[in-house]
Protein: LL-diaminopimelate aminotransferase
Organism: Succiniclasticum ruminis DSM 9236
Amino acid sequence: MARVNENFAVLEDSYLFSQVAHKVADFSAAHPEKKIIRLGIGDVTLPLAPVVVTAMQKAAAEMGVKETFRGYGPEQGYDFLHEALVKYYAGFGVTLESSEIFISDGAKSDCGNITDIFDDANVILVPDPVYPVYLDTNIMRGRKIVFMEGSPENGFLPMPDPTVKADIIYLCSPNNPTGAAYSKAQLKEWVTYACQNGAVILYDAAYEAFIEDETLPRSIFQIEGAKECAIELCSLSKTAGFTGTRCGYTVVPLRLMRKTKNGKEMSLNKMWLRRQTTKFNGVPYIVQRAAEAVFTPEGQRQCRENLAYYKENARLIGAALQEKGITYYGGTNSPYIWMQCPRQMKSWEFFDFLLEELNIVGTPGSGFGSSGEGWFRLTAFAGRKATEEAVERFRKLL
Ligand code: PLP
């Protein structure tokens, strides 16, 4: 008889967004006249940049012509996109080899799939609060997970604790949900800790394009020594509105080596290549051409216009909270605003208050980990009008 993976039995139901959706549906059914503003979801709302659409159309047309039709592509992505990324990284001082870059259908898949190349006996260090995928994908493997607490004391940027022994470390900067971003000096401490312990950092840079403070790192590879201890996962979802188009990339340095139980030295780059060529058949040609267009000067200009729109939304929300004396993190260098619930309310209590009194939907911080209790995530991805109206409601009622 087939036995199932028992680790799924200990996974908690993915309760956060379904619970939010239920509560909002119940509220709208009871009060159809109320205009609800949604600052809860982490999905983009602006359309793809025109150069991206043109590149997709051109690539689609090529697929309809015998001479330019493409079948299976390289599992790790086409050279043209690797070259575009090599140039992009050079823009912030990082030298990459084409063979260090792996194109994927997004950072969520890579976050989950990368677990394949690590032994299940590893101890996993996960920030709390954080993007829930790191936790759940490792619970699915039955791994031991240790949490590092984010709090106002550390600015929601947990730092290495020499008394904690970890093998795999997840870092997300700028962070979802807190919007907090590590400085180069802070990342250097993590790189030193990882190198000293033989650990590997899985660095999620999905929000790097939101960074406007030029002193902050856009990539962990801006930190000396990171190529010996880190893998970087990134995505075009938020950078270029690819949440529905699906394209991301993972950088596994050629120098990154670790041993098997028996002491055999293995290249993580070669392992990831083997994993991808075995279990993945690549991202569609059309999507990779669209992604290539993102990295052209015009593509960057157009995508940055969209990012500026979201950032202005974040600024408006942040300014209103500041006026009300509400503590918050993020809002700059990030599309997320992580606010403390007023009047010492718990996260879900504040969710209900916001929905019922202001008809605004956000995301309870406790859904991102127990350290998120008493905190709340607002996003900058709504339209300008809706954001301005939400801000007015905050000003009047909070
Ligand atoms: N990493 C973080 C921190 C995210 O917040 C998200 C999406 O919300 C992802 C990864 C997933 O991105 P993708 O759409 O590329 O799968």
User: Anything to note?
Assistant: The chain has two domains: 14-43+298-397, 50-295. The radius of gyration is 21 Å. The pocket of pyridoxal-5'-phosphate is lined by residues 42, 106-108, 131, 172, 176, 204, 206, 235, 237, 243, 248 (CB under 6 Å). Residues 50-295 form a domain with the Aspartate Aminotransferase; domain 2 fold (CATH 3.40.640.10).
